[in-house]
User: What shape does this take?
Amino acid sequence: MQHPDYDSSTQEQFGNNHDDFQLQQKFVDILILVNDFGLYLNKMVPKYEYQIIITCNIH
Assistant: This one.
C-alpha cells in the first residue's frame, strides 16, 4: 500500500526514495547476517554469551 505523503516527504529528505529503500534493505541484510552469526557462535560455544551492538547513523 502506498502512502503518498510519506513517499513525497521521504523523497524531499533523501532525494531518491529508491536509494533510501536500498540502504534500508542493506542494513536489514546486515542485521540478519549478524544475527545468524550470533546463533552460530552460540551453538559452537554455548558457555559464552555474545552481545553485538550495531549503531547506524544516517545523515
Remarks:
- Residues 1-59 form one domain.
- The chain has one domain: 1-59.
- The helical segments are 4-14, 17-44.
